[in-house]
What does this fold into?
Amino acid sequence: MKKILILAFVCLAALQTAAAQSFSFLQIPQDPAVSGMAGAGVALRSISPLDNNLADAALAQEKMTAGASYTLWTPSVNSFGLLGASASYRVIPKLVVALSVKDFMSPSYDITSEGGHVDQSFKPKDLAIGLGAAYQLGESLAIGAAAKFLHSSLAPEVKRSTVAFNLSLKYAANGLQAGLALDNLGAGVPSTVRAGAAYSIVGLTASLEGDYVLGAGMMAGAGLQYGFKDMVFVRAGYHLGMSEKVIPSHVSLGIGLKFSGLHLDVSYLTASKTLGNTLAFGVGYSF
It folds into this structure.
């Protein structure tokens, strides 16, 4: 079994080609609370579990969660927009199903003829629709699995669709949380192995995460969150990007409010020429 897993991992790495860059938006956190902690969220609870760690949804106490977010990505370089929506529902005590939609919108560009005349303009667009389920194996352990339909339109004649898969594992007990996720498993997609841990005590949560993007390199992130009476949250973090092909190094800041099941979150990325002034806004509800 060990040899089979190693062989599968090597084969998957060999399939990571330049085509994967058309789906690089999958690396952007959909939850502003996670991006406010520099993306170190695989061990944390999220309003968009399928995008973060789906297994966690089975360990949560809520019957249902739903959320939406918008990220103004790299406005200092060029304005891209990431629109996200997600929902999860507990079907039976140990089983949760989840849905996620991620829409990445790029600025329009002009298409010129051989004579140098502008014939038309084109607006690239990337879309990911995911459906999955999480199951609680024990009091502190859960697993999750999801499938995603991906579509990318980079030019009028350059379009691509494919399918990718997520697998995740989550442990949580006595203030300690640990998460492992295999995200975007598929040919020509930026497949990622994510592992991390978090610890909470007296309203303070510290989170660490290391990621390996097949064909691109390593990344790491560390984040802190302080919650006042589980109502007001202040967040900060640092992301170390080993490759400009994925997410560059940056500092993150964030705030959040929670009241009667309603979540409001904002994050801001700085200390990066590429990601400077990136803003994310999110709203969610759970019960």
Notes: The chain has a mean pLDDT of 90.
